[in-house]
Design goal:
About 25% of the residues lie in helices and about 35% in strands. The protein is of the alpha/beta class. It folds into 3 domains: about 10-275, Spore Coat Polysaccharide Biosynthesis Protein SpsA, Chain A (Alpha-Beta Complex); about 290-350, no CATH class; about 365-470, Jelly Rolls, CATH 2.60.120. The longest helix is centred in the N-terminal third of the chain and has 16 residues, at about 125-140.
Length: about 475
Protein backbone atom coordinates (compact mmCIF):
# COMPACT_ATOMS: atom_id res chain seq x y z
CA UNK A 1 0.00 0.00 0.00
CA UNK A 2 1.31 3.47 -0.85
CA UNK A 3 2.24 5.43 2.28
CA UNK A 4 0.32 8.62 3.00
CA UNK A 5 1.84 11.59 4.77
CA UNK A 6 -0.62 13.24 7.13
CA UNK A 7 -0.62 16.10 9.60
CA UNK A 8 0.77 15.03 12.97
CA UNK A 9 -1.16 16.62 15.85
CA UNK A 10 0.64 16.21 19.21
CA UNK A 11 -1.58 15.41 22.17
CA UNK A 12 0.28 16.16 25.41
CA UNK A 13 -1.14 14.45 28.49
CA UNK A 14 -0.32 16.51 31.56
CA UNK A 15 -2.25 14.76 34.31
CA UNK A 16 -1.03 13.05 37.45
CA UNK A 17 0.69 14.25 40.61
CA UNK A 18 4.01 12.41 40.41
CA UNK A 19 3.92 11.29 44.03
CA UNK A 20 7.06 9.15 43.69
CA UNK A 21 9.05 12.36 43.07
CA UNK A 22 7.86 14.06 46.24
CA UNK A 23 8.91 16.43 47.82
CA UNK A 24 9.81 18.25 44.58
CA UNK A 25 6.59 17.07 42.92
CA UNK A 26 3.38 18.02 44.74
CA UNK A 27 -0.30 18.07 43.95
CA UNK A 28 -0.46 21.76 43.00
CA UNK A 29 2.90 21.75 41.18
CA UNK A 30 3.62 18.21 39.92
CA UNK A 31 6.73 16.78 38.29
CA UNK A 32 5.83 17.62 34.69
CA UNK A 33 5.92 21.34 35.55
CA UNK A 34 9.37 21.13 37.18
CA UNK A 35 12.82 21.57 35.57
CA UNK A 36 14.12 18.21 36.81
CA UNK A 37 16.58 17.53 33.98
CA UNK A 38 17.63 21.00 32.82
CA UNK A 39 16.43 24.57 32.51
CA UNK A 40 13.06 23.64 30.97
CA UNK A 41 10.27 21.76 32.71
CA UNK A 42 9.41 18.26 31.53
CA UNK A 43 6.23 19.69 29.96
CA UNK A 44 8.25 22.32 28.09
CA UNK A 45 10.76 19.71 26.91
CA UNK A 46 7.86 17.64 25.57
CA UNK A 47 6.21 20.59 23.84
CA UNK A 48 9.48 21.71 22.28
CA UNK A 49 10.22 18.18 21.05
CA UNK A 50 6.99 18.19 18.99
CA UNK A 51 7.22 21.81 17.83
CA UNK A 52 8.12 23.02 14.37
CA UNK A 53 8.28 21.42 10.94
CA UNK A 54 6.10 18.34 10.59
CA UNK A 55 3.94 19.02 13.64
CA UNK A 56 0.69 20.92 14.05
CA UNK A 57 0.07 22.98 17.21
CA UNK A 58 -0.47 20.63 20.15
CA UNK A 59 -3.58 19.73 22.11
CA UNK A 60 -2.88 19.65 25.85
CA UNK A 61 -5.08 17.77 28.32
CA UNK A 62 -4.71 18.76 31.97
CA UNK A 63 -6.52 19.25 35.26
CA UNK A 64 -8.04 22.41 36.68
CA UNK A 65 -5.26 23.32 39.19
CA UNK A 66 -2.46 23.40 36.59
CA UNK A 67 -4.07 25.16 33.66
CA UNK A 68 -2.58 28.63 34.14
CA UNK A 69 0.92 27.31 34.85
CA UNK A 70 0.80 25.17 31.71
CA UNK A 71 -0.45 28.07 29.58
CA UNK A 72 2.33 30.31 30.90
CA UNK A 73 5.05 27.69 30.37
CA UNK A 74 3.94 27.13 26.76
CA UNK A 75 3.69 30.87 26.15
CA UNK A 76 7.25 31.38 27.36
CA UNK A 77 8.42 28.92 24.66
CA UNK A 78 6.40 30.56 21.91
CA UNK A 79 4.24 27.42 21.59
CA UNK A 80 0.60 28.25 20.84
CA UNK A 81 -1.57 25.18 21.47
CA UNK A 82 -4.51 24.16 19.33
CA UNK A 83 -6.40 23.82 22.60
CA UNK A 84 -5.93 23.20 26.31
CA UNK A 85 -8.63 20.76 27.43
CA UNK A 86 -9.46 20.83 31.13
CA UNK A 87 -10.53 17.52 32.65
CA UNK A 88 -13.07 18.08 35.46
CA UNK A 89 -11.82 14.84 37.06
CA UNK A 90 -8.99 12.41 36.33
CA UNK A 91 -10.24 9.36 34.44
CA UNK A 92 -7.07 7.84 33.01
CA UNK A 93 -5.54 8.06 29.56
CA UNK A 94 -8.37 6.51 27.48
CA UNK A 95 -10.97 9.25 28.20
CA UNK A 96 -8.36 11.99 27.89
CA UNK A 97 -7.18 10.76 24.48
CA UNK A 98 -10.78 10.17 23.39
CA UNK A 99 -11.65 13.80 24.11
CA UNK A 100 -8.64 15.06 22.14
CA UNK A 101 -9.36 12.66 19.27
CA UNK A 102 -13.00 13.78 19.13
CA UNK A 103 -11.97 17.43 18.94
CA UNK A 104 -9.31 16.89 16.25
CA UNK A 105 -11.44 14.51 14.15
CA UNK A 106 -14.07 17.21 13.63
CA UNK A 107 -11.72 19.67 11.95
CA UNK A 108 -8.86 17.47 10.69
CA UNK A 109 -10.17 13.91 10.29
CA UNK A 110 -7.21 12.77 8.17
CA UNK A 111 -4.59 13.79 10.74
CA UNK A 112 -2.76 11.40 13.01
CA UNK A 113 -2.41 12.00 16.74
CA UNK A 114 0.96 11.74 18.47
CA UNK A 115 0.10 11.05 22.11
CA UNK A 116 2.90 12.03 24.51
CA UNK A 117 2.84 12.03 28.31
CA UNK A 118 4.33 15.31 29.55
CA UNK A 119 6.76 13.63 31.95
CA UNK A 120 9.00 11.52 29.68
CA UNK A 121 12.63 12.17 28.81
CA UNK A 122 13.93 11.58 25.28
CA UNK A 123 17.62 12.07 24.57
CA UNK A 124 17.86 11.85 20.76
CA UNK A 125 15.39 14.28 19.22
CA UNK A 126 16.32 13.41 15.62
CA UNK A 127 15.82 9.69 16.23
CA UNK A 128 12.50 10.48 17.91
CA UNK A 129 11.29 12.44 14.89
CA UNK A 130 12.37 9.63 12.56
CA UNK A 131 10.42 7.11 14.66
CA UNK A 132 7.37 9.39 14.62
CA UNK A 133 7.58 9.63 10.82
CA UNK A 134 7.63 5.83 10.53
CA UNK A 135 4.78 5.45 13.01
CA UNK A 136 2.71 8.06 11.15
CA UNK A 137 3.07 6.09 7.91
CA UNK A 138 2.03 2.87 9.66
CA UNK A 139 -0.92 4.65 11.33
CA UNK A 140 -2.06 6.14 8.03
CA UNK A 141 -2.32 2.60 6.66
CA UNK A 142 -4.89 1.68 9.30
CA UNK A 143 -3.06 0.87 12.53
CA UNK A 144 -2.96 2.08 16.13
CA UNK A 145 0.74 2.43 16.81
CA UNK A 146 2.75 2.40 20.02
CA UNK A 147 6.50 2.80 20.45
CA UNK A 148 8.48 -0.10 21.87
CA UNK A 149 11.73 0.72 23.66
CA UNK A 150 14.39 -2.05 23.57
CA UNK A 151 14.24 -3.77 26.96
CA UNK A 152 17.83 -3.74 28.20
CA UNK A 153 17.20 -4.51 31.89
CA UNK A 154 14.45 -6.49 33.67
CA UNK A 155 12.36 -3.51 34.87
CA UNK A 156 9.31 -4.65 36.83
CA UNK A 157 7.60 -1.26 36.81
CA UNK A 158 7.15 -1.12 33.03
CA UNK A 159 4.72 -2.77 30.64
CA UNK A 160 6.16 -5.00 27.89
CA UNK A 161 5.19 -5.59 24.25
CA UNK A 162 6.06 -8.67 22.22
CA UNK A 163 6.52 -8.02 18.52
CA UNK A 164 4.46 -10.10 16.09
CA UNK A 165 4.83 -10.29 12.31
CA UNK A 166 6.52 -7.43 10.41
CA UNK A 167 4.47 -4.71 8.69
CA UNK A 168 5.54 -4.33 5.08
CA UNK A 169 8.75 -2.45 4.45
CA UNK A 170 8.49 -0.14 7.46
CA UNK A 171 11.76 -0.35 9.37
CA UNK A 172 11.22 -1.70 12.89
CA UNK A 173 7.42 -1.88 12.57
CA UNK A 174 5.50 -5.02 13.56
CA UNK A 175 2.08 -6.14 14.57
CA UNK A 176 1.67 -6.45 18.32
CA UNK A 177 1.93 -10.02 19.56
CA UNK A 178 1.17 -9.58 23.25
CA UNK A 179 1.11 -7.02 26.07
CA UNK A 180 2.33 -7.88 29.57
CA UNK A 181 1.85 -5.34 32.34
CA UNK A 182 4.50 -5.01 35.11
CA UNK A 183 5.81 -8.59 35.25
CA UNK A 184 7.60 -10.30 38.11
CA UNK A 185 11.38 -10.03 38.17
CA UNK A 186 11.80 -13.62 36.95
CA UNK A 187 9.37 -13.08 34.07
CA UNK A 188 11.03 -9.76 33.15
CA UNK A 189 14.42 -11.47 33.04
CA UNK A 190 13.02 -14.09 30.67
CA UNK A 191 11.54 -11.44 28.36
CA UNK A 192 14.75 -9.41 28.21
CA UNK A 193 16.73 -12.57 27.40
CA UNK A 194 14.19 -13.53 24.70
CA UNK A 195 14.91 -10.39 22.68
CA UNK A 196 11.47 -10.05 21.06
CA UNK A 197 10.05 -7.89 23.85
CA UNK A 198 10.21 -4.12 24.24
CA UNK A 199 9.13 -1.75 26.99
CA UNK A 200 5.78 -0.09 26.43
CA UNK A 201 6.65 3.61 26.17
CA UNK A 202 3.12 4.89 26.74
CA UNK A 203 3.36 7.01 23.56
CA UNK A 204 1.05 6.40 20.61
CA UNK A 205 0.41 7.46 17.02
CA UNK A 206 -3.28 7.10 16.18
CA UNK A 207 -5.61 8.08 13.35
CA UNK A 208 -8.38 9.77 15.36
CA UNK A 209 -11.28 8.26 13.42
CA UNK A 210 -9.87 4.73 13.62
CA UNK A 211 -9.10 5.13 17.32
CA UNK A 212 -12.64 6.35 18.03
CA UNK A 213 -14.13 3.49 15.99
CA UNK A 214 -12.16 0.91 17.98
CA UNK A 215 -12.94 2.68 21.25
CA UNK A 216 -16.65 2.65 20.41
CA UNK A 217 -16.43 -1.08 19.71
CA UNK A 218 -14.32 -2.02 22.75
CA UNK A 219 -15.20 0.60 25.38
CA UNK A 220 -18.41 2.32 24.22
CA UNK A 221 -19.05 4.04 27.57
CA UNK A 222 -15.70 5.84 27.27
CA UNK A 223 -16.30 6.86 23.65
CA UNK A 224 -19.85 8.14 24.14
CA UNK A 225 -19.22 10.07 27.35
CA UNK A 226 -15.99 11.62 26.07
CA UNK A 227 -17.79 12.73 22.90
CA UNK A 228 -20.63 14.18 24.94
CA UNK A 229 -18.11 16.03 27.13
CA UNK A 230 -16.61 17.63 24.01
CA UNK A 231 -20.06 18.40 22.54
CA UNK A 232 -21.05 20.30 25.68
CA UNK A 233 -17.60 21.78 26.36
CA UNK A 234 -17.44 25.43 27.36
CA UNK A 235 -14.72 27.89 26.25
CA UNK A 236 -13.03 29.68 29.14
CA UNK A 237 -10.36 32.26 28.25
CA UNK A 238 -7.66 30.21 26.49
CA UNK A 239 -9.07 26.88 27.72
CA UNK A 240 -11.82 24.42 26.83
CA UNK A 241 -13.67 22.94 29.80
CA UNK A 242 -14.93 19.42 29.13
CA UNK A 243 -18.50 19.07 30.40
CA UNK A 244 -18.32 17.56 33.91
CA UNK A 245 -21.71 15.81 33.76
CA UNK A 246 -20.54 13.71 30.81
CA UNK A 247 -16.82 13.30 31.48
CA UNK A 248 -17.40 12.12 35.05
CA UNK A 249 -19.41 9.19 33.66
CA UNK A 250 -16.32 7.85 31.90
CA UNK A 251 -14.78 4.90 33.72
CA UNK A 252 -11.18 5.31 34.86
CA UNK A 253 -9.20 3.28 32.35
CA UNK A 254 -5.93 3.44 30.41
CA UNK A 255 -5.73 3.34 26.64
CA UNK A 256 -3.88 0.01 26.91
CA UNK A 257 -6.64 -1.64 28.95
CA UNK A 258 -9.47 -0.06 26.95
CA UNK A 259 -8.17 -0.54 23.40
CA UNK A 260 -4.58 -1.53 22.69
CA UNK A 261 -4.64 -4.91 24.44
CA UNK A 262 -7.84 -5.97 22.61
CA UNK A 263 -7.74 -4.48 19.12
CA UNK A 264 -6.44 -6.37 16.10
CA UNK A 265 -5.17 -3.08 14.64
CA UNK A 266 -2.33 -2.59 17.14
CA UNK A 267 1.22 -2.12 15.83
CA UNK A 268 4.54 -1.39 17.49
CA UNK A 269 7.50 0.58 16.16
CA UNK A 270 10.79 -0.37 17.76
CA UNK A 271 12.40 2.94 18.73
CA UNK A 272 15.85 3.74 20.04
CA UNK A 273 15.84 7.41 20.97
CA UNK A 274 17.02 7.36 24.58
CA UNK A 275 13.67 7.11 26.35
CA UNK A 276 13.03 7.16 30.08
CA UNK A 277 9.87 7.45 32.14
CA UNK A 278 10.80 10.11 34.70
CA UNK A 279 8.89 8.32 37.42
CA UNK A 280 11.16 8.08 40.45
CA UNK A 281 14.29 9.45 42.07
CA UNK A 282 16.22 6.37 40.98
CA UNK A 283 15.31 7.15 37.35
CA UNK A 284 16.77 10.65 37.78
CA UNK A 285 19.89 9.06 39.28
CA UNK A 286 20.09 6.72 36.30
CA UNK A 287 19.79 9.62 33.81
CA UNK A 288 22.02 12.06 35.67
CA UNK A 289 25.68 12.96 35.20
CA UNK A 290 27.60 10.92 37.78
CA UNK A 291 30.90 11.68 39.46
CA UNK A 292 33.66 9.09 39.87
CA UNK A 293 31.86 7.57 42.87
CA UNK A 294 28.56 7.24 40.97
CA UNK A 295 26.86 10.18 42.72
CA UNK A 296 24.46 12.58 41.00
CA UNK A 297 24.60 15.95 42.76
CA UNK A 298 22.23 18.86 42.03
CA UNK A 299 22.38 22.20 43.85
CA UNK A 300 24.39 23.30 46.87
CA UNK A 301 25.83 19.99 48.11
CA UNK A 302 29.09 19.11 49.91
CA UNK A 303 29.91 15.39 50.09
CA UNK A 304 32.64 13.32 51.65
CA UNK A 305 32.97 9.65 50.80
CA UNK A 306 29.47 8.81 49.50
CA UNK A 307 28.80 6.55 46.51
CA UNK A 308 25.84 5.70 44.26
CA UNK A 309 23.74 8.53 45.71
CA UNK A 310 21.31 11.08 44.31
CA UNK A 311 21.60 14.29 46.35
CA UNK A 312 19.56 17.37 45.43
CA UNK A 313 19.22 20.71 47.19
CA UNK A 314 16.61 23.32 46.40
CA UNK A 315 18.52 26.21 47.97
CA UNK A 316 19.77 25.06 51.37
CA UNK A 317 23.26 23.61 51.86
CA UNK A 318 23.19 19.82 52.10
CA UNK A 319 26.20 17.93 53.46
CA UNK A 320 26.49 14.14 53.13
CA UNK A 321 29.13 11.82 54.57
CA UNK A 322 29.75 8.18 53.74
CA UNK A 323 26.32 7.34 52.30
CA UNK A 324 25.78 4.46 49.91
CA UNK A 325 22.96 4.14 47.32
CA UNK A 326 20.90 6.79 49.08
CA UNK A 327 18.52 9.51 47.92
CA UNK A 328 18.62 12.88 49.68
CA UNK A 329 16.30 15.65 48.49
CA UNK A 330 16.00 18.94 50.39
CA UNK A 331 13.41 21.61 49.60
CA UNK A 332 12.58 24.75 51.58
CA UNK A 333 10.23 22.86 53.88
CA UNK A 334 10.99 19.12 53.55
CA UNK A 335 13.99 16.76 53.63
CA UNK A 336 13.65 13.27 52.12
CA UNK A 337 16.23 10.56 52.88
CA UNK A 338 15.60 7.13 51.31
CA UNK A 339 17.31 3.92 50.31
CA UNK A 340 17.62 4.19 46.51
CA UNK A 341 16.31 0.63 46.11
CA UNK A 342 13.10 1.54 47.97
CA UNK A 343 12.26 4.85 46.32
CA UNK A 344 8.92 3.50 45.05
CA UNK A 345 7.74 3.76 48.67
CA UNK A 346 7.88 7.56 48.54
CA UNK A 347 4.26 7.52 47.37
CA UNK A 348 3.31 5.72 50.61
CA UNK A 349 4.78 8.62 52.59
CA UNK A 350 2.65 11.01 50.56
CA UNK A 351 -0.44 8.95 51.37
CA UNK A 352 0.38 9.22 55.08
CA UNK A 353 0.72 13.00 54.76
CA UNK A 354 -2.62 13.25 52.97
CA UNK A 355 -4.35 11.24 55.68
CA UNK A 356 -2.85 13.59 58.25
CA UNK A 357 -4.00 16.62 56.17
CA UNK A 358 -0.43 17.90 55.94
CA UNK A 359 0.00 20.75 53.47
CA UNK A 360 3.41 19.38 52.43
CA UNK A 361 1.63 16.73 50.34
CA UNK A 362 -0.26 19.34 48.36
CA UNK A 363 1.75 22.51 47.95
CA UNK A 364 5.21 24.03 48.09
CA UNK A 365 5.81 27.08 50.28
CA UNK A 366 5.53 29.07 47.04
CA UNK A 367 2.02 28.71 45.58
CA UNK A 368 1.43 29.88 42.00
CA UNK A 369 -1.66 31.71 40.83
CA UNK A 370 -2.51 33.18 37.39
CA UNK A 371 -1.74 36.67 38.74
CA UNK A 372 1.61 35.70 40.32
CA UNK A 373 2.45 33.76 43.47
CA UNK A 374 2.62 33.86 47.25
CA UNK A 375 5.02 32.32 49.74
CA UNK A 376 4.34 31.43 53.37
CA UNK A 377 6.92 33.24 55.52
CA UNK A 378 5.76 32.65 59.09
CA UNK A 379 2.70 31.44 60.99
CA UNK A 380 1.50 30.97 64.54
CA UNK A 381 -1.67 31.02 66.65
CA UNK A 382 -3.99 33.60 65.10
CA UNK A 383 -1.54 34.99 62.53
CA UNK A 384 0.12 34.21 59.21
CA UNK A 385 2.67 36.12 57.12
CA UNK A 386 2.99 35.83 53.33
CA UNK A 387 5.15 37.35 50.62
CA UNK A 388 2.87 38.20 47.69
CA UNK A 389 4.17 38.84 44.16
CA UNK A 390 1.83 40.21 41.48
CA UNK A 391 2.82 40.27 37.80
CA UNK A 392 2.59 43.57 35.86
CA UNK A 393 -0.94 44.31 34.70
CA UNK A 394 -2.49 41.49 36.77
CA UNK A 395 -4.96 41.60 39.62
CA UNK A 396 -6.40 39.34 42.27
CA UNK A 397 -10.12 38.64 42.50
CA UNK A 398 -12.52 41.06 44.17
CA UNK A 399 -13.16 39.19 47.41
CA UNK A 400 -14.10 39.12 51.08
CA UNK A 401 -13.02 37.05 54.10
CA UNK A 402 -15.37 36.26 56.98
CA UNK A 403 -12.79 35.24 59.58
CA UNK A 404 -9.58 37.17 58.95
CA UNK A 405 -8.26 40.70 58.57
CA UNK A 406 -5.25 41.58 56.43
CA UNK A 407 -2.49 44.18 56.57
CA UNK A 408 -0.47 44.88 53.41
CA UNK A 409 2.96 46.55 53.25
CA UNK A 410 4.41 47.32 49.79
CA UNK A 411 8.06 46.28 49.45
CA UNK A 412 8.54 47.33 45.82
CA UNK A 413 6.37 48.30 42.89
CA UNK A 414 2.97 50.00 42.84
CA UNK A 415 -0.23 48.58 44.30
CA UNK A 416 -3.72 49.63 43.35
CA UNK A 417 -6.11 48.70 46.16
CA UNK A 418 -9.89 48.57 46.25
CA UNK A 419 -11.12 48.61 49.86
CA UNK A 420 -14.85 48.89 50.29
CA UNK A 421 -15.91 51.98 48.35
CA UNK A 422 -12.39 53.42 48.28
CA UNK A 423 -9.69 53.06 45.63
CA UNK A 424 -6.11 53.83 46.64
CA UNK A 425 -2.59 53.66 45.20
CA UNK A 426 0.24 52.44 47.46
CA UNK A 427 3.94 52.72 46.78
CA UNK A 428 7.10 51.42 48.43
CA UNK A 429 6.93 51.30 52.26
CA UNK A 430 3.26 52.34 52.33
CA UNK A 431 0.66 50.08 53.97
CA UNK A 432 -3.07 49.52 54.43
CA UNK A 433 -5.45 47.53 56.66
CA UNK A 434 -8.30 45.40 55.28
CA UNK A 435 -10.85 44.63 58.04
CA UNK A 436 -12.76 41.36 58.40
CA UNK A 437 -15.64 41.20 55.91
CA UNK A 438 -14.42 44.17 53.85
CA UNK A 439 -14.64 43.86 50.06
CA UNK A 440 -11.16 44.29 48.59
CA UNK A 441 -8.97 43.76 45.55
CA UNK A 442 -5.23 44.07 44.90
CA UNK A 443 -3.85 45.01 41.44
CA UNK A 444 -0.50 45.82 39.89
CA UNK A 445 -0.92 48.71 37.41
CA UNK A 446 2.82 49.19 36.95
CA UNK A 447 5.41 47.76 34.52
CA UNK A 448 7.41 45.95 37.24
CA UNK A 449 6.59 43.10 39.63
CA UNK A 450 4.70 44.15 42.75
CA UNK A 451 6.05 42.67 45.99
CA UNK A 452 4.30 43.09 49.31
CA UNK A 453 4.07 41.49 52.74
CA UNK A 454 0.63 40.36 53.90
CA UNK A 455 -0.04 39.80 57.59
CA UNK A 456 -3.24 37.87 58.25
CA UNK A 457 -4.86 37.83 61.70
CA UNK A 458 -8.05 36.12 62.78
CA UNK A 459 -9.79 33.06 64.16
CA UNK A 460 -9.29 31.03 60.94
CA UNK A 461 -6.62 31.54 58.27
CA UNK A 462 -7.34 28.77 55.75
CA UNK A 463 -7.30 29.52 52.02
CA UNK A 464 -10.93 28.42 51.78
CA UNK A 465 -12.07 31.51 53.77
CA UNK A 466 -12.72 33.40 50.56
CA UNK A 467 -15.78 34.58 48.67
CA UNK A 468 -15.00 35.84 45.17
CA UNK A 469 -17.24 38.62 43.91
CA UNK A 470 -15.45 39.05 40.58
CA UNK A 471 -12.53 37.26 38.94
CA UNK A 472 -10.61 37.99 35.73
CA UNK A 473 -9.51 34.36 35.31
CA UNK A 474 -12.86 32.56 35.32
CA UNK A 475 -12.17 30.69 38.56
CA UNK A 476 -14.83 29.13 40.76
CA UNK A 477 -16.14 31.89 43.01
CA UNK A 478 -16.12 29.55 46.02
CA UNK A 479 -12.68 28.04 45.33
CA UNK A 480 -9.30 29.06 46.70
CA UNK A 481 -7.44 27.82 43.60
Amino acid sequence: MESVVRTVVPVILSGGNGTRLWPMSRELYPKQLLPLLGELSLLQETAWRVHGHGFAPPVVVCGEPHRFIIAEQLRSLGVHPRGILIEPVARGTAPAIAAAATMVARTDPDAVLLVCPADHNIVDRDAFRAAVATAAEVAAEGHLVTFGIPATTPETGYGYIQAGGPLGSHQGASRVGRFVEKPSLARAQEMVADGSWTWNSGMFVLPPRLFLEELTRLAPDVASNAAAAVNAAAPDLDFVRLAPSSFERCPTVSIDNAVMEHTDRAAVVRAEFGWDDVGSWSSLWRMGDKDKAGNVVVGDVVDDGSSGCYVRSDGVLVSTIGLTDTIVVATKDVVLVADRARDQQVKLVVEQLRRAHRTEAKAHPVVYRPWGCYEAVDAGPGYQVKHISVKPGQRLSLQTHSKRAEHWVVISGTAEVVRGEDSLVLRERESIDVPVGCMHRLSNPGPEMLHLIEVQTGSYLGEDDIVRLDDAYGRDMSSSA
